Amino acid sequence: MEKGKGKVVAGVVDLESSLLQIVQEQHQKALLDRDRVDAAKRAALRSATHVSELLVDAVNTDVRESFLNEKRIELEVQALQNTIMLYKKQTNQWFAASHSLNSVLKEIGDFENWMMVMDYDCRSINAALQNIYRHSE
């Protein structure tokens, strides 16, 4: 029976070594799978980071462009306000000059009227004097 026992022991040892080999292979496979999964995670993280950076750059570019447009608009508004102030000043000057011209024209009209009244008065006085002179002769 010792002969059969030796075969059994050898069979147990072979089975044990086979199981041990299977466990080691499975362990190595699990390590390789874990390394591949970790590498895939790192690659996905790098890709996500890259996409995030591209999105942030795109948004920042639009924000920067909007900010520059806002500054340009503010400068244009300031220039337009300055131009409006100049036009307002010119308009006020033209209004004052027009008012002065109207006053002068009114004065001229008043002077002309005064001259006509004076002419009429002088003619009336002259006519009266001529009547007096004629009646005194």
Automatic annotation (TrEMBL):
Example GO biological process: endosomal transport
Entry superkingdom: Eukaryota
Pfam families reported for this sequence: GCN5L1
Coiled coil (residue ranges): none
This protein's GO CC annotations: BLOC-1 complex
Family (UniProt): Belongs to the BLOC1S1 family.
The protein's name: Biogenesis of lysosome-related organelles complex 1 subunit 1
Organism from which the protein derives: Zostera marina (Eelgrass)
